[in-house]
Specification:
The structure holds 2 protein chains of 2 kinds. By secondary structure, chain A is mainly alpha-helical. Chain A has 13 helices and no strands. Chain A has a single domain, classed as MetI-like fold (Orthogonal Bundle), CATH 1.10.3720. The chains are: A mainly alpha, B alpha+beta.
């Protein structure tokens, strides 16, 4: 801004932003608060806006032993399951789509466009749409309750392939030719030039896909039956019981807080690369 | 170092477009050859065929003593400098230059020696650890040349390497490329659409037009003895004046208005009564005394270029430009043109070829 701003003009935007942050952050804060009281206090609604004194007990119990009845596994296991699932999906998607985008952009082979459109069309077929056939295949392959079954059907990704394709198309033709003259074949060009140039795009995709994998609900719900294969999203759902038993809200909230952490860590760590990957134009 | 020989080389694209139409050319060992022509004339395609980046549809390309039609670009012993430099953006200047050598398994000490030497030659030593994006256009250009030099190739290929530079830098780099060539004496093939670059750099200029060679020769030959109307108008700025005429007698060609020019009948072979196209460069005529029968230029506009002044007007119904020294006062609106017979060019209007005796 060139013009000098009045004090008022500088304060108003901040006030608006602070109000916005409060609205977004309050439920999260409430969850955090609830996870620090004992069951009775939460249940009776006698919580204050200050943290209680049960924090360490609650978290210790939830991480290492789990709730009394509904989820019999400790949250530690769920976190690990979710983490493995999110990582495998994110990394799997990135590697598969890197390779397919490389083939589509840099090689001339018969039915290249057909292959591209096939990938493109799968955008219209998310897991929810093809859930029965996918389940059937996974079940027939004896992959229920395995990490493979949990992740493999979610790895194929049109979105990531498209993103890489768009990026690859901005790589100047001359760079490919210079590599050819420098004696770099397709594999070397991919490894020495394309991969280093794609780092920021890969980082951006990783953030998006990690969170996508972490938040999966429907698929893990179908595919996992054993307690020790549960993901944390399923775990939270199971903790909140609607009939007969008492929901241990303090534990459910502690689980929710724990479930929040890994995506937050990923976003915070990769923020810079993420933004660069989405906006960078100079190659 | 090697000569490059093209024999009946053709390039037909998948759509049936013939970009290069059966073209033969010898690029002598150590020469600096410039392929010159308007955009779309096939000069870049030809260069890319020599480099191995385009498939050869017909004919043979030989580098040194090896036929290279089916040889990979990296095995053709050539180095190429691209128009947009095509430096690897994520590698340092040093790595950019060393990459090709590493891929060929050159020893580390040898790579270091060659890169250091090329960097010294091109005065880019202080930037070796920088990334290309931290360099100016001229510096990037040098790195691109450095990358070619360290390969110590049989032939250097340049694909319009100066067109991305600003005018001042272009002049400077042009000189440096020529100096470099004088020092390395490496066979060089340089593609450009800029006639000044062609004239200043080349030992041999190859003027191309729609996939064929119009003329091959030294810059002066091309300028002084253009083989066709295309070459005559493409080389020289402002372009050569062209106007119709009829051969009246050996050594005398008549214009549309009845006036005539004298030409050298020992040089041009034209039948009496033949319709011809007369060529005269703007700087080859001067204002003379009015003699009956001498062509008169009626000029309308002048352009001051500092050292010269251009007079635009008509001569016997055709538009005509006359270049005259700027320190002479602009004469009256009609100028009698004085020429010497040696400066008049005679072309066949049908074929566009020069009627110069072989």
């Amino acid at each position: 801004m060139v013009e000098r701003q009045t004090l008022f003009a500088r304060i108003v935007p901040h006030v608006v932003l602070i109000i916005g942050v409060c609205i977004v952050a309050f439920p999260v804060y409430l969850a955090l608060l609830a996870s620090t009281y004992d069951a009775a206090t939460v249940q009776n609604g006698r919580m204050t806006l200050l943290p209680g004194n049960q924090m360490i007990e609650n978290y210790e119990r939830i991480i290492f032993s789990g709730t009394n009845s509904t989820t019999r596994e400790p949250v530690g296991t769920m976190l690990l399951n979710s983490f493995i699932m999110a990582m495998v999906i994110a990394l799997g998607k990135i590697s598969i789509s890197l390779i397919s985008a490389y083939a589509i952009v840099f090689f001339r082979f018969p039915f290249r466009m057909a292959a591209f459109w096939l990938i493109f069309v799968t955008l219209m077929l998310p897991v929810e749409v093809r859930i029965y056939p996918t389940y059937k295949i996974v079940a027939d392959l004896q992959l229920l309750d395995t990490y493979t079954g949990l992740t493999l059907p979610l790895i194929a990704s049109a979105t990531a392939t498209l993103l890489f394709r768009q990026f690859f198309m901005t790589v100047p033709e001359e760079l490919v030719e210079a590599s050819k003259i420098d004696g770099a074949g397709p594999y070397k060009f991919f490894k020495d030039t394309l991969l280093p140039l794609s780092v920021t795009t890969m980082a951006a995709l990783f953030v998006i896909q990690f969170i996508y994998g972490w938040n999966q609900y429907l698929w893990p719900l179908l595919i996992t039956t054993r307690d020790n294969m549960q993901t944390i999203v399923i775990g939270i759902k199971k903790m909140i019981v609607t009939s007969d038993a008492l929901t241990e809200w303090q534990l459910a909230m502690a689980t929710a807080v724990l479930a929040l952490l890994p995506p937050v860590v990923v976003v915070v760590l990769m923020q810079k690369l993420f933004v660069k990957g989405l906006v960078e134009t100079e190659k | 170092m090697a000569s490059v020989v093209l024999e009946a080389v053709r390039k037909v694209y998948a759509g049936g477009v013939e970009a290069v139409k059966g073209l033969s050319l010898t690029i002598p060992n150590g020469s600096f050859t410039v392929l010159l022509g308007p955009s779309g004339c096939g000069k870049s395609t030809l260069l890319r065929m020599i480099a191995g980046l385009e498939e050869i549809s017909g004919g043979t390309v030989t580098i040194g003593s090896k036929k290279v039609n089916d040889v990979e670009p990296s095995d053709r012993d050539i180095a190429m400098v691209f128009q947009n430099y095509a430096l690897y953006p994520h590698m340092s200047v040093y790595d950019n230059m060393a990459y090709g050598l590493r891929n060929r398994g050159t020893a580390k000490e040898e790579i270091e020696r060659r890169v250091a030497e090329a960097a010294r030659m091109l005065a880019i030593e202080p930037y070796l650890q920088r990334k290309p994006r931290a360099l100016s256009g001229g510096q990037r250009q040098r790195v691109a040349m450095g990358r070619a030099i360290v390969r110590e190739p049989a032939a250097f290929l340049f694909d319009e390497p100066l067109s991305n530079l600003d005018a001042k830098l272009r002049v400077q780099m042009r000189l440096e490329i020529r100096k470099l060539h004088n020092r390395l004496k490496a066979t060089s093939i340089f593609v450009t659409h800029d006639q000044v670059e062609a004239m200043t750099l080349a030992d041999q200029v190859v003027v191309m037009n729609s996939g064929k060679i119009e003329q091959t020769g030294t810059p002066l030959e091309i300028y002084r003895r253009p083989a066709s109307i295309f070459v005559a108008t493409f080389i020289g700025s402002p372009a050569m004046n062209l106007f119709p005429g009829t051969i009246e007698a050996p050594g005398k060609v008549r214009l549309a208005d009845g006036t005539s020019f004298a030409y050298d009948a020992n040089v041009f072979d034209a039948k009496i009564g033949a319709k011809v196209e007369i060529g005269l460069r703007p700087e080859d005529a001067k204002a003379g005394t009015a003699v009956p029968g001498r062509p008169k230029l009626a000029w309308e506009v002048t352009e001051e270029l500092g050292a010269t002044r251009l007079l635009h007007g008509t001569l016997a119904g055709s538009s005509f430009v006359l270049a005259m020294p700027a320190d002479i006062d602009t004469p009256a609106h009609e100028i009698a043109l004085e020429t010497t017979p040696g400066t008049i060019h005679i072309f066949d209007p049908e074929s566009g070829r020069s009627l110069r005796r072989a």
